[in-house]
Amino acid sequence: MKTLLLALCIAGTTAFAQQKVKYSKEERKEMNRYLFNEGFNTATDKKVSTIILKDNTEHQGYSKSWEKQKGQILSITIEDVDTRKPMKFAAADIAEMFLYATETEKSMKAAKFISNMRNYSTKKYSKSVTDDAIPYENQIVSLKNKKEPKAFLMQVINPEFNELITVYHDPFASETMSTGFAGAPAFGGGVIKSYYIRKGDKVMWLHKDDFEDNYDFLFGDNVEFMKKYPKKSVEWNYLSFLIYQYTEMSHG
């Protein structure tokens, strides 16, 4: 009986995933909103960074250098805020970390925001120039699902709604092409094509091309969500909105 009920549940969820739902213009505009934080690849040495080790000890200092693989942090060196001595920490020993973006990178993000008309209706400019601390956490992950799993410090870009699904910045992610004229803002494009995602015990690199294949893994355990947002009716562009809605609906 349990096997039968499970089969019926899976069949029902699959049926929802195959249905087409027609959304209104207002609904699609809402779904197109980009709710993730901006991904940053640098850290300023002008503000105090915080590192919390797995043994709960805390260290504060100025970010000086780091070792990376495919843009993900393997180790970081900071200058202690009190002693001014350099201290190097391996990602494997760190539980979480908080850094601040450089003014140079924020300026670049701001210019990129302004250069694409699509951003005006989908993103918040403030996230490109944020003065807030940028959260990182330790994860053991296979880069692009191909390399030997290692411990990295990865930037969390959905800290406000990561209770069930955590999304991490992919520093090497490409973007969809935009069109425009010389000297004028571009139209369309600018959609990030990949992220690292954790749900439960599984951490994976998720690319735009593999979104449909992994849709059931991400959202299939919420029948109500699958009925409202079946995979044949949504697009990769809606990912941040979908994760936010899945989290809200799963919490009742």
Provide the descriptors you would attach to this structure in a database record:
alpha+beta, seven-stranded antiparallel sheet, 7 helices, 10 strands, 27% strand, three-stranded antiparallel sheet, 252 residues, 26% helix
Structure description:
By secondary structure, this protein is α+β, with helices and mostly antiparallel strands. 26% of the residues lie in helices and 27% in strands. The protein contains 7 helices and 10 strands. It has helices at residues 2-18, 25-31, 103-114, 117-122, 215-219, 223-228, 239-250, and strands at 49-53, 58-69, 72-80, 86-90, 94-99, 134-141, 150-155, 165-168, 194-199, 202-207. The strands form 2 sheets. It has a 7-stranded antiparallel β-sheet with strand order 4-3-2-1-5-6-7, with no helix packed on it. A 3-stranded antiparallel β-sheet has the order 8-9-10, with no helix packed on it. A hairpin with an 8-residue loop joins β6 and β7. It is globular.
